[in-house]
Amino acid sequence: xxxxxxxxxxxxxxxxxxxxxxxxxxxxxxxxxxxxxxxxxxxxxxxxxxxxxxxxxxxxxxxxxxxxxxxxxxxxxxxxxxxxxxxxxxxxxxxxxxxxxxxxxxxxxxxxxxxxxxxxxxx
Length: 123
Description:
By secondary structure, this protein is mainly alpha-helical. It is built from 4 helices and 2 strands. The longest helix has 26 residues.
């Protein structure tokens, strides 16, 4: 007959938190890579718009990648993103409208793989 033991006093609260923390950390690493992949595509006149890019937490397991995060670049970011450019692209600088969408088309599959890899490394 097998020996059976009942575990009665184990605190599982930390174990329950771990998957959420791991997913949050993996998501943050992925978002930072998204920002890095998008940055060369952001229009550059003075460099302020490119420099304004950041990631921020937006609730449970949500991270936002955004540009135009200060007063000087906020009004400028939206028309640049949606294609109402007020300056020509500079030679040698890839600056399409909807730069995130273009980066996602090119790099989106890698972002998913990165998230999966980072999550597995943390769980």
